[in-house]
Specification:
244 residues, alpha/beta, Rossmann fold, 6-stranded mixed beta sheet, globular, binds adenosine-5'-diphosphate, binds magnesium ion
Length: 244
């Protein structure tokens, strides 16, 4: 379980998150929906302990990580896989090397165990035959699947996705969303995905928190979003804007 408690975050003088509280339960797909620049990527960084809040707490499995030092954060981060918006693949490494890089760096595993895990992720991602290719030879959807494989290789409990479908064509988007739901069904994996695309929320989210002007203005089951009377939510629903 990941929890933000009364988190306030500023960049310089600029207030980004104003006493934000939110819970991500295990084995749940939680969306954080909000317009561009509202602080969605910032929330992911807070959950990983990559940045510290100005006030409030971040808890992972009931452990307050707010003031943990870097080395104590490593085992916490291993509970969470991260898929960055731009995938953050290494251009000069093959697909297999990309998938195994952090595993090799961070865990003392025998080579054959690393190879077994890479092969498992290659299969899951449907990338057989691409093991020795460079990322530049892959489509956007395939690169995203490599990034997901690299996150899964640590056997995390939850995966954090920053705008998982941004920039993908509709077919690739649906595939990625399908992967997120199938991970939950088959591996009991929870997910947090931050997005500005409402359709993705309705497609796969169990719960959604809507972030607007530094505050959570809705937090609950995705199918209850239409019950909100907040003007911003009413406007995005009535205008049927797909991206906000
Ligand atoms: N390291 C930083 N220093 C200063 N401002 C930042 C930094 N990172 C993000 N911002 C600003 O904070 C706001 C929220 O950023 P971000 O979390 O990336 O938003 P989102 O992911 O919702 O688009 C934006 O206005 C952005 O320009
Ligand atoms: Mg962002």
């Amino acid at each position: 379980m990941i929890e933000l408690r009364n988190v306030t975050l500023k960049y310089g003088e600029k207030l980004i998150l104003d006493k934000v509280s939110m819970t991500v339960r295990d084995n749940t797909i939680k969306a954080v929906l909000g317009p561009s620049g509202v602080g969605k990527s910032t929330i992911i960084k807070l959950m990983l302990g990559l940045i510290k809040p100005n006030s409030g707490q971040v808890l992972v499995d009931s452990v307050d990580i707010t003031h943990l030092k870097e080395t104590d954060l490593y085992p916490i981060r291993r509970k969470m896989g991260i898929v960055f918006q731009g995938n953050a693949l290494f251009d000069s490494m093959t697909i297999s090397q990309n998938m195994s890089f952090f595993l090799r760096e961070n865990m003392q595993l025998p080579d054959d165990e690393i190879e077994r895990r890479v092969a498992e992720q290659i299969r899951f991602a449907g990338l057989e035959g691409y093991e020795d290719q460079l990322p530049e030879n892959l489509s956007g959807g395939m690169k995203k699947r490599v990034a997901i494989g690299r996150a899964l290789i640590f056997n995390p409990k939850t995966i954090l996705f920053d705008e998982p479908t941004a920039g993908l064509d509709p077919v690739s988007s649906r595939k990625i969303l399908h992967i997120i739901t199938s991970l939950k069904k088959s591996n009991n994996l929870g997910a947090v995905f931050v997005t500005h695309i409402i359709d993705d929320v309705f497609a796969i989210a169990d719960e959604v928190a809507v972030l607007y002007q530094g505050k959570i203005i809705f937090d609950g089951p995705a199918d209850k979003l239409h019950e909100s009377d907040h003007p911003f939510i009413c406007s995005i629903l009535s205008d049927k804007i797909l991206e906000i």
